[in-house]
Design a protein that fits this description.
2 domains, 5-stranded mixed beta sheet, 9 helices, about 35% helix, binds zinc ion
Length: about 325
Amino acid sequence: MKERSDSLTLKGLIAAQSRLSTTHPMVSTLASKQSIIEAGIGGEQRVVEVLQKYRFPFKNNIFHDLSLSSDTNFQMDHLFKTPYFGVILETKNMSGSLEFRDNPPQLIQNREDGQIKYYESPVVQLERNMELMSAWLSQRNIDLPLYGAIVLAYPKQHVEIPPPTTKILFPNLIPPFFKSLPQEGKGLDNAAFHRLSKELLTSHQTYIPKPICESYQIPVGDVLPGVRCVNCGKIGMIKLPRTWHCPSCKVNNHLAHQGTLVEWFLVVKRTITNSECREFLGVDIYTANRILNGMNLIGSGTYKDRMYKMDFRKK
Ligand SMILES: [Zn+2]
């Protein structure tokens, strides 16, 4: 029903790498960030699979990768809700042996290659999310007890020191944990339960990442311009009247500029001017004008200062 919050980041990272020279000093940084995000997506996918297979003996909804805002913005990997309670799951994907330290809160990873890494404790993240979610619910006068757990998504994770009070689960332990939670009181009635689901979905905000060049201080001039072929992925389609032509695979596509402009917004800048568009797509002023006005972008300013922005939330 909604896009993952880090899918745009991932798209930007992949596009940026293909538009930098292979010897560019930032390529390896972008590649390792890409694999961290992919591991995270893989881990959350395992949780999704377990929950999809399981039939719970009570009414429930599951929301994956939900971004809401109460006192501040917050993002939950998974929210499971029944008429009686809600559960927030925080997924972690780390190999090796893990120590959850309490004072100060910290997660220490002893990797198989001997490296030791220190992270913010997921217990702190989980507690913050539970507070923010409680606030979100009470702002709407909804009375629903909340629980939380940390899920270790990969079997190669070993917990040396667990946190003192927070539940740690492997994916297959999630359903029994949900079933063990108390179902007390009247719970939400049907109408309230569905209203809450609807409100969670409409309140969800797609996360719009900063363009890669901004996040990683990459000079715009390092980014290879040109329209990417939608068929073979090569950059360098040629503008013909009313269409684009790929010299590599010979395919024509009249909308090829659209994906390339999305790459501009994810990789280079949040905004684009007519002259930037001309340079990036390799077109003249009139074609650039027609393209920018034909893509449902948000325009601002006039004449030479006119700028366009993509509304990723509406896409
Ligand atoms: Zn091609």
